């Protein structure tokens, strides 16, 4: 008996969508993919639908007195789009069925964000195969979709001699100072912006100008700060609610004259979010350093230094977004033949899988990997 995830699946070109530009100027992006239905016996189906939804969930707590609180939750729909692949009831023979789809998404959609459990913006893509009988369970498949924003169009561009453009966030950042003429320190990073899934290389130097102090250790904290505005209609205070979390911690206990610290950035948006600033949410990242020194009499002091970091989506070099009217040359247009080749490749691999499974089912993967658009275009 087939499992639910083996019968109905959603294959996406990518589940990490990026909006380029601000909410007012962005042309949006396109969510593309294929829905596959693998039936091993004749099945009557009432309908096949695919729905893309987005919602924002807000939670507020009210003090009732005597140490008691009441939590109010409010969920509002942001977007809802539905496609129907089989509008009428039909009996489908045992076979593999594929349906391509695309959802053009407007550029004003808010980014996928989470501020603790008080403010959450999330998007979901759900496919449903409706069965005609009440006692027959529908086939369902669900995929979370993450939307981020990269406002490159609004950043100031600087032209350097080799005709290569850099934004302000791509230049090195450094901080250097001294403490009461006894401790000299400097920290630097090659770029203020860093992509998800990459690493931040921190170079530093600490020098003591006196023999009366001793460095105990150097601590490095990579932290994420999240804040959201309160709803003034239901709450008396409009003070933003702020949350923070520690993403990575590193410590140096020797070689202070010249050291390098590698800070890994998680690839998953659940572990590290993109920098965000809109009407409701603000997300920022900071590198914080703590230099612990001890005097001869045992007194311990701590020096604190901070470097700003901007986390951006880990996207390929080419832009896969809807171009503006004066920028259509920088985007690859949608080609129905490419999607047809994607479907044909999926059907061929599905057929070969059923033939080979009779010989050795363990050597085959549960489902073949669909080729990307770039792989098809190079053939």
TrEMBL record:
<dbReference type="InterPro" id="IPR014752">
    <property type="entry name" value="Arrestin-like_C"/>
</dbReference>
<dbReference type="InterPro" id="IPR014756">
    <property type="entry name" value="Ig_E-set"/>
</dbReference>
<dbReference type="GO" id="GO:0005829">
    <property type="term" value="C:cytosol"/>
</dbReference>
<dbReference type="GO" id="GO:0031625">
    <property type="term" value="F:ubiquitin protein ligase binding"/>
</dbReference>
<protein>
    <recommendedName>
        <fullName>Arrestin C-terminal-like domain-containing protein</fullName>
    </recommendedName>
</protein>
<dbReference type="GO" id="GO:0005886">
    <property type="term" value="C:plasma membrane"/>
</dbReference>
<dbReference type="GO" id="GO:0070086">
    <property type="term" value="P:ubiquitin-dependent endocytosis"/>
</dbReference>
<dbReference type="GO" id="GO:0030674">
    <property type="term" value="F:protein-macromolecule adaptor activity"/>
</dbReference>
<dbReference type="InterPro" id="IPR050357">
    <property type="entry name" value="Arrestin_domain-protein"/>
</dbReference>
<dbReference type="Pfam" id="PF00339">
    <property type="entry name" value="Arrestin_N"/>
</dbReference>
<dbReference type="InterPro" id="IPR011022">
    <property type="entry name" value="Arrestin_C-like"/>
</dbReference>
<dbReference type="InterPro" id="IPR011021">
    <property type="entry name" value="Arrestin-like_N"/>
</dbReference>
<feature type="domain" description="Arrestin C-terminal-like">
    <location>
        <begin position="179"/>
        <end position="314"/>
    </location>
</feature>
<dbReference type="Pfam" id="PF02752">
    <property type="entry name" value="Arrestin_C"/>
</dbReference>
């Amino acid at each position: 008996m087939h499992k639910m995830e083996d019968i109905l699946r959603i294959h996406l070109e990518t589940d990490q969508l990026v909006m380029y530009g601000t909410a007012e100027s962005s042309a949006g992006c396109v969510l593309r993919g294929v829905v596959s239905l693998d039936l091993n016996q004749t099945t009557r189906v009432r309908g096949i639908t695919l729905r893309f939804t987005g919602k924002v969930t807000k939670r507020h707590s009210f003090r009732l007195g005597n140490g008691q609180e009441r939590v109010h939750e409010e969920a509002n729909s942001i977007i809802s789009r539905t496609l129907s692949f089989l509008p009428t009831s039909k009996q489908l023979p045992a076979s593999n069925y594929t349906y391509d789809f695309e959802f053009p998404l407007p550029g004003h959609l808010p980014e996928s964000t989470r501020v603790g459990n008080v403010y959450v913006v999330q998007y979901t893509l759900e496919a449903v195969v409706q069965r005609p009988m009440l006692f027959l369970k529908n086939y369902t498949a669900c995929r979370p979709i993450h939307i981020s924003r990269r406002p490159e169009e609004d950043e100031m561009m600087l032209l350097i001699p080799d005709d290569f453009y850099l934004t302000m966030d791509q230049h090195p950042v450094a901080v250097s100072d001294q403490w009461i003429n006894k401790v000299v320190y400097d920290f630097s990073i090659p770029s203020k912006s860093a992509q998800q899934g990459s690493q931040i290389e921190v170079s530093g130097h600490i020098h003591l100008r006196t023999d009366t102090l001793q460095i105990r250790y150097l601590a490095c904290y990579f932290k994420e700060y999240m804040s959201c505005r309160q709803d003034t209609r239901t709450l008396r205070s409009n003070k933003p609610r702020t949350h923070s979390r520690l993403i990575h911690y590193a410590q140096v206990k020797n070689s202070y004259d010249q050291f390098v610290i590698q800070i890994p950035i998680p690839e998953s948006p659940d572990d590290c979010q993109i920098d965000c600033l809109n009407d409701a949410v603000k997300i920022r990242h900071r590198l914080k350093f703590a230099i612990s020194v001890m005097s001869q009499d045992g007194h311990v002091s701590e020096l604190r230094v901070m470097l700003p970091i901007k986390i951006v989506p880990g996207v390929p070099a080419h832009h896969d977004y809807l171009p503006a009217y004066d920028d259509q040359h920088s985007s690859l247009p949608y080609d129905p033949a490419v999607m047809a080749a994607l479907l044909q490749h999926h059907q061929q691999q599905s057929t070969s899988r059923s033939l080979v499974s009779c010989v050795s089912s363990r050597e085959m993967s549960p489902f073949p990997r669909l080729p990307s658009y770039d792989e098809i275009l190079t053939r």
